[in-house]
Amino acid sequence: MTTSIILAGVGGQGILLAGTLVARAAMSAGLAVKTNETHGMAQRGGAVTAHVRYGKEVHSPLIPLGTATALAALECLEVLRAGEYLAPDGKVVASTERRIPVNSGAAAYPADIEERVKKLYPAALLFDAVQMAREIGNIRVANVIVVGALAAQLDLPLECWQQALAAGVKPQHLELNQKAFRAGLNAAGAA
């Protein structure tokens, strides 16, 4: 069986690192991994997605619509944007941060975004990863907090995630990122 993860956000939120951490954790577990990233207008705050697929054998990095095991979003609106990838029994983990993507034109950000997400995905885990990251000491680790919450939804051993963090972040930032990962696990009730 192939596990398929969609990571979604806007440019500058760290989606690419988040995807790398998921891929490295799966590789640490001895699984085949394929990834694909869509940068779009990432440097200008546009939508960014990463597809990560892992299992004993993976044929394509692209996730077919309606088949993703989980969707992790660093921005609430991106849950709605990427939701078409999610399988009916798929899990949603998302930060409640609100960033207006550059490609939204004159559209107003929905004031009821969290209610919309919960209506479509009643079991969605929504939490303020940015505020949690502030409390840890650096808002740039909000992405790793979301990865920690995602990890609680997946079948990869904790030691594989620790190896992924050690390999994926600079040594001087490892302790901070480990704290962020644990905070995400806590948000998901897994630690």
Task: Note down, in words, how this protein is organized.
The protein has 191 residues and is an alpha/beta fold. It has a single domain, classed as Pyruvate-ferredoxin Oxidoreductase, domain 3 (3-Layer(aba) Sandwich), CATH 3.40.920. Helix content is 38%, strand content 23%. The protein has 7 helices and 6 strands, in the order E-H-E-E-E-H-E-H-E-H-H-H-H. A 6-stranded mixed beta sheet has the order 2-3-1-4-5-6, with helices on both faces. Helix 4 crosses helix 5. The longest helix is centred in the N-terminal third of the chain and has 14 residues. The chain is globular, with a radius of gyration of 15 Å. The chain starts with a strand and ends with a helix.
Side by side, the strands of the main sheet go: 2-3-1-4-5-6
If you consult CATH, what is the topology? Pyruvate-ferredoxin Oxidoreductase, domain 3
Uncertain runs are: none
Largest sheet: 6 strands, mixed
List how many beta strands DSSP finds.
Answer: 6
Provide a brief overview of the structure.
This protein has 191 residues and is of the alpha/beta class.
